[in-house]
């Protein structure tokens, strides 16, 4: 598996600024929507690192690889039959050159992703492709669970976006036309798995700014995140634009 941007990254940028912002947080906290909008606002690249785990789980199921077989999954990470591609709207996944993105984002596949993401060898084998997303770019917003702790520990700005469990379940259930209680149970299980695993657990990165989005609309969250990024970059004598 490899990762690539839709347009050759940095092709027109003779001096890439290479600013990295990470946004971590639990399921349905709003991190995807906010990170995508922030990247669009600055003209930066954006990657949802969850797509790597979702992609792997999907590919494993389709290729008949057991989702509890660490060795086989670790090998599958390196297979060229699938790839992850950055895109301004959604991080895309291709299997045998077929776009399977809409299938990987179903909640059932989120649970399978959480299962395969527990394995240390899987995480190690996906790390390189995740880090490649930051090569030759003016800026990158990377979102996930361990972006600020493991993938980009030296990121210029780190955020952790969260929301009350019920608000998160309501949002995801609404998006996917599912029952709120069922969605809540699946998310609680996934968050517990993601935060209690031994390798790269979901956690608030040191020095990260925490934003609770429960009582904010998307515009308000984007404005808060934008203000934090500008302030922290200014302290480092950098500007997002
Ligand atoms: O963010 P998203 O819901 O797409 O992530 C799907 C799953 O992928 C998470 O529940 C988690 O198990 C895994 N993941 C991870 N590390 C990341 C991003 C996602 O373990 N950086």
Beta percentage is 15-25%
Termini Cα gap: 32 Å
Give the CA-based shape.
globular
The number of domains is 1
Look at the helices and sheets and give the structural class: alpha/beta
Number of helices: 10
Strand order of the largest sheet: 3-7-2-8-9
Quick structural gist:
The chain contains ten helices and nine strands. By secondary structure, it is an alpha/beta fold.
Kindly describe this structure.
This protein has helices at 31-42, 50-63, 70-77, 101-104, 107-116, 120-132, 147-151, 165-176, 180-196, 218-235, and strands at residues 2-5, 19-24, 45-48, 82-86, 92-95, 98-99, 139-144, 157-162, 209-212. It is an alpha/beta fold and 241 residues long. It has one domain (2-235): P-loop containing nucleotide triphosphate hydrolases (Rossmann fold, 3-Layer(aba) Sandwich). The strands form 2 sheets. The chain has a 5-stranded parallel sheet with strand order 3-7-2-8-9. A hairpin with a 5-residue loop joins strand 4 (82-86) and strand 5 (92-95). The protein starts with a strand and ends in a 6-residue tail after the last helix. The relative contact order is 0.21. Residues 7-13 have low confidence and may be disordered. Residues 27, 48-50, 53-54, 110, 113-114, 117, 144-147, 190, 194 line the site of cytidine-5'-monophosphate.
Secondary structure layout:
Blueprint: E1 2-5, E2 19-24, H1 31-42, E3 45-48, H2 50-63, H3 70-77, E4 82-86, E5 92-95, E6 98-99, H4 101-104, H5 107-116, H6 120-132, E7 139-144, H7 147-151, E8 157-162, H8 165-176, H9 180-196, E9 209-212, H10 218-235
Parallel strand pairs: 1-4, 2-7, 2-8, 3-7, 8-9
Antiparallel strand pairs: 4-5, 5-6
Helix pairs in contact: 1-10, 2-5, 3-6, 5-9, 8-9
Bound molecules: cytidine-5'-monophosphate (C5P).
